[in-house]
Specification:
The protein is α+β, with helices and mostly antiparallel strands. It folds into 3 domains: 43 residues; 50 residues; 58 residues, Head domain of nucleotide exchange factor GrpE (Nucleotide Exchange Factor Grpe, Chain A, domain 2). It is 66% helix and 18% strand. The chain has a 3-stranded antiparallel sheet with strand order 1-4-5. Strand 4 and strand 5 form a beta hairpin.
Length: 200
């Protein structure tokens, strides 16, 4: 190989080395810049202790506010429920009493009519009509029903025996009814007061 060719190769080799070295330096500087940017970003993202404390205090204040609001809402709800319950208790019989007013008015009319009449039968008929109307209203509108009739079998769960005597019966039987019993739907609200005939 000639000397000139050798020199050309050396020059080319040095140029290549120079380019590689330059590229390496560029890559290192790029990496250094990226590292610096990453550190700066990390420093920007990482809050200081004071910032952390301030954020926690704000979160704590928000949670306290929510808790106080919920406690106030619950207290208002509780008071409203107590009032509604008391109102329901105080006015539970308002409808029934309103329906009874008509019967009371009819009794007042009957009493007024009794002052001027000498016919006892018409007064008795008026009272019977009031009684029939009242019983019908209570049965149909309020599911109130009476029980306890002469001749029915005696049931200690629904009848209260005030007196008893032995007689010619197979099972205990009601002989006389002093006071009728009443049921509201299926619940007994007053036991029938009766006298009973017991088997001999």
């Amino acid at each position: 190989m000639s000397e000139e060719a050798e020199n050309t190769e050396e020059v080319q080799g040095e140029e290549i080395k120079s380019e590689i070295s330059s590229e390496e330096k560029d890559a290192e500087s790029v990496q250094a810049e990226e590292g610096a940017e990453t550190e700066e970003a990390a420093e920007e993202q990482e809050p200081t202790a004071d910032e952390k404390i301030a954020a926690l205090e704000k979160e704590n204040a928000d949670l306290k506010d929510q808790l106080l609001r919920r406690a106030a809402d619950f207290d208002n709800y509780r008071k409203r429920m107590i009032k509604e319950k008391q109102d329901a208790y105080d006015y539970a019989n308002a409808n029934l009493l309103g329906d009874l007013l008509e019967s009371l008015d009819n009794f007042d009319r009957t009493i007024e009519a009794a002052k001027d009449t000498k016919n006892a039968k018409s007064i008795a008929d008026g009272i019977k009509m009031i009684n029939k109307s009242l019983v019908k209203m209570l049965e149909e509108k309020y599911n109130l029903s009476s029980f306890g009739k002469v001749g029915e079998a005696f049931n200690p769960d629904s009848h209260e025996a005030l007196r008893s005597e032995n007689g010619d019966v197979k099972e205990p039987e009601i002989k006389e009814v002093y006071l009728k019993g009443y049921k509201l739907k299926e619940r007994i609200i007053r036991h029938a007061k009766v006298s009973v005939v017991m088997p001999e």
